[in-house]
Amino acid sequence: MASTEPIKNKPTKTAVPLESATLKPKKVKDDIENQVNNLEKDGVVSKEEQSPSALQEQDVTENQPDTTSDSSALFQAIGIITGKVNFITEGDKERSTITIGNKEYPLLYASRKQRAYDALKKEIEATGESTQRLVVYPKFTHFPGRDQPPNVGFQVVGFDKGRQEEVISQQLQDMEFKLCGLWQFIPVCRTPCISVFKNFTKERLDHIKQSEPARKVKFMKASHLPLFWRDALVPPFRFNPKAPKEEQGRPVFVQIKAKFVPHRDAFEFDSLLELPQEKPPRFLKASKDDKATAMAEKKAALKAAGKEFGPPKGKPPFKGKPKGDFKGKPLEMPKPKPKPQQ
After folding, report:
1. What is the three-class DSSP state of 54?
2. How far is CA 310 from each of CA 154, 307, 331, rounded to the nearest angstrom?
């Protein structure tokens, strides 16, 4: 049976710089908001009276009642990976990757995490040790085809040097992640996912209202992390367009520890951190109108640049040679023999 005890793994090393990456859910409101802003935890805003379909396409609105059963819960996806860090220079550009086993993944960083990225480079240059223990956010990009695997990368938050206590690198071992989000199927992935959305704050809401649709959609984009959870305590939600709204149900908010499995490019369930909640924390999600507007603007920009948006519709014209020879009169087919009369 899955454990509900807090994580007790305590490796001897810790991570720097990780002031904002600690696993301390029961903090005051200001600390929670700082965690949300500093860690880029994805999250969503929910209404108790909403139908499941409305929950799937939630509009951003300031008049949303707080329906969370645990105000300390947050949408979050953060963990530890260990591998060989590579810095690759291509012309005047530089990119970085991390090799885990026999697989190589893009190593990303946000502009406000430039200090952590630069510190990692200096650490490798000073020590000559390219194998590092990193604190990261998982980044999965899904594509329209359900059979097409997602692109997987990791965003650097910090790296392990054993200078701080009570940070996430002490509480998680290599390849372990804390995943908190909605447990559900999404249309573009055969494997059920933990959907991690943007956590709601008043400051974020004010910022979003002043942004253009394209920036809104990008800011509120969720992260959908494939998870293999055998004998799950609760089944993943699957939206059924043919079922009545009152029979749909809704996704459950789960908080788990999971291990990243490179050969599957997915996570495997390890243990429960808290019991599942029917009411998720408040979150932000782009509305249908904003998504449609952002898509229309993107198409218009591509058209103005002389580029096509998406694959061409319809079948291409046939350019091959016909298989048969249709010159002259067609051959007469033999007539069937008459049946003998009885």
Report:
1. helix
2. 27, 9, 46
The winner for highest mean pLDDT among 39-48, 140-149, 186-195 is: 186-195
pLDDT of residue 170: 81
Contacts of 111-114 spanning 24+ positions with Cβ under 8 A: 112/38, 113/155, 113/156, 113/157
Tally the C-alpha atoms within 13 A of residue 288's C-alpha that lie toward its C-beta. 5
Mean pLDDT of 70-80: 88
Global confidence as pTM = 0.68
- Alpha carbon 315 to chain centroid, angstroms: 33
The DSSP secondary structure of 218-249, one letter per residue, reads HHT--EEEEEE-TT-SSPPB---TTS-GGGT-
Phi first, then psi: what are they for 220, rounded to 5°?
A: -95, 10
> For residue 326, is pLDDT > 80?
no
CA dist., res. 150 & res. 140, Å (int): 6
Tokens of 91: 């012309």
State residue 154's pLDDT score: 97
